[in-house]
Amino acid sequence: MRVLIAGRTGQLAVELMERLPRDGHLVTALEPPDLDLADSAGIAAAVEATAPDIVVNAAAYTAVDKAESQRDLAFAVNATGAGLLAAAAAARGLPFVHVSTDYVFRGDGGAPYAEDAPTDPAGVYGESKLEGERAVLAANPRSIILRTAWVCSPHGNNFVKTMLRLGAERESLSVVDDQHGAPTFAHDLADAIARLIPGLVAAPAGSDAFGIFHLTGAPWTTWHGFAAAIFEGAAQRGQRVPRLVPITTAQYPTPARRPADARLDCGRIIRVHGIHPADWRRSLSRCLAALITPPETMS
Ligand SMILES: NC(=O)C1=CN([C@@H]2O[C@H](COP(=O)(O)OP(=O)(O)OC[C@H]3O[C@@H](n4cnc5c(N)ncnc54)[C@H](OP(=O)(O)O)[C@@H]3O)[C@@H](O)[C@H]2O)C=CC1
Ligand SMILES: Cc1cn([C@H]2C[C@H](O)[C@@H](COP(=O)(O)OP(=O)(O)O[C@H]3O[C@@H](C)C(=O)[C@@H](O)[C@H]3O)O2)c(=O)[nH]c1=O
Ligand SMILES: [Mg+2]
Q: Alpha-carbon distance 140 to 244, whole Å?
């Protein structure tokens, strides 16, 4: 099948470009200027020109803090652009895969969020992603929305790479221990999308296959717990690691407010699609192996 991916250099796009050809798919991955989600004029033309069997949106405005002062751009990409891409797919009768975030939730529910739990984002990024979910579902009834969280990979910007960089520079590192969630490796997300594609292409509008699903890694942790696992793995690979200090959100002020507990209940994707959360600790090992060059062995 021919798969059009919006995005080329982002974490998920890179993993999809690596994964989908292994299932025999022909992949076209486009980034600006060839496909710019903030430029409504060119979106439908890019889909027409590629003539795909399915469209996957792996592009987004993901700078959570910067979004607080770039509201218009965040909404142009994450809401308007996502909706137009979904509409362009619908106009050709194509299914649409869209990715959203745990940040659509406020994070004060005290229990994992089900797929139909009420949303209430605390920041502009989450608001723009929620608006994007609505635009996508309104534009294309054959859309699947995968809400995920804490995405990491050897590529692009993410928490694993930030921790390794800061850890190499500092004696001690303070990380919030009161925000709960689950890391998700882009590789595992790409694998899930690869497994979904044949069923989505075959499924008619109205099928259970479409709609909102949650998919993160497992088990749940905090950012501090995740950092501890990163440094444990880094130390095993011979890296000098910092002293890690647990702190509260109040001790780490940021422009955007993050949800305290946006754990996502992934029950629906297990029931409908038979896809289970991957153990992020295994995926972290792979990621660290890719990021940390082993020291030369003496002979
Ligand atoms: N990263 C995370 O922790 C999480 C991500 N998600 C969602 O998962 C999806 C994939 O995220 P991820 O791969 O991590 O994101 P990245 O930030 O790694 O990649 C996003 C890509 O989108 C591109 N992009 C930005 N603006 C535009 C535009 N106007 N038109 C076309 N492309 C654009 C970026 O290009 P450039 O770099 O040049 O700006 C980048 O290549 C997104 O929908 C995101 O919201 C959900 C939960 C967590
Ligand atoms: C760098 C650093 C961060 N932190 C905190 C800040 C924040 O609460 C948490 C994570 O920081 P980050 O800035 O990497 O995370 P953030 O950019 O908020 O990550 C989010 O990105 C978007 C795109 C999503 O969709 C979310 O699922 C989530 O992955 O760790 C520390 O406590 N100490 C530190 O040294
Ligand atoms: Mg970030």
A: 46
